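Researcher: Here's a chain I'd like modeled. Treat it as a single chain, no partners, no ligands.
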Amino acid sequence: MADYTTNTGVMEREIFKFTQKISEGMARPFQKFAADVCYGAMASKSCLISEMAQALQEDTQKINTIERLTRHLGNEVPEAVRGNYLNVATKYLPESVVVHIDDSDVVKPCGKAFEGIDRVRDGSKSTQTKSVMGNGYYVTEATALTYSNHPVSVFSEVWSTQSPEYTSGGQFEYTKKAVRACVDKLGHVIFVMDRGYDDNDVFRLLDKYEQEYVIRLKLNRKVRIQGEKHSIGELCSKYKGKYKAKVIYHGRKRKARLSVVKGCLSGSDRLLSIILVYGLSGHPMVLATNLNTDTKAQLIAAMRHYFSRWRIEEYFRCKKQMFSFENFRVRSLTAINSLNFFLSACMLFLATLRETREKNCHFKICIDAAALLKPKVFFFYYRLAEGLYTLLSKAHSGIRGYFKPLKPNQRQLKIRGFAA
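Model: Modeled as a single isolated chain. Structure tokens:
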């Protein structure tokens, strides 16, 4: 039988230590708030302030806890805290960092009073032939892969075309912010992007920062090869795949055929490798990269960098499913972005459990508590979050008890009849 009392205390202490690293150097009230919001989200599997307050199990009235958390969320996250977060995240990143940048959506179908709410494309209901629109926000995210190929966020911002800070640059402006944030903190990385980023401005931006990249091209893209323009369809019909490789595509093991040709994109004279991938879907997949693809191993490695992109999709899905990110009730964009940051911190805590599995028993404690049926998985965030929720639900008090009370000020002795 599992010793839930001991294991719950172990995980509470680990969450406390983690939040102390995130809020290092900040005032004590903010440190308590950071611990409360992260613990509350993981103990309730929710981003609703009322459910977080319930999970904290404080002696005060619940409405007071809700007002305190809401007041803190209404302030922007300090840059020092964001720096602490990135310092923790970079400890688990390899030397050659792969960064995925993608956009997601947060849909609020009945929302009316949220600041700057706009019409966005609902990715969960839309198809390749039909776009379903709904009220909500866009989310631009950049995630880096850890040693165990699990994503951690290095940039995340919720935005809307109706917000006061919105500029005419649109999505590209937030892509620039994401790229700049990754370059400033991580230095030289490999950016991986989907077809939505097949834009000459994006290629010029990455060339400006001298970064490596793998970007999937749209089928209507033109490529210049030895001075002659060719459409993607023409290229795909000329080649049939010189090399073979085994890949995991949509969760299944598949055999792919690859060919590579050197060419330039329209609007640029830089020579890139155009990788043609056959056998995975109805249409060949076309990738553009400035990575070295002279050998078969380098070519396959570049292709697999792109296939690792599904990790950011799982990251979005996990944040929405395990923490109900689309169910938030805070209304201002500042509060929404603050809440988004602390949910990203919760995801980072799950990553730390996965990356330190060889050093301690915390990972095994959470996996055993989750008690799931499938014996083998490649993405552990779901069951780690489920295990944490199971353990923390056994707690009899929140995380506030881990903060040592401050010593009261010594009262000055006074002698009656003498002035101080």
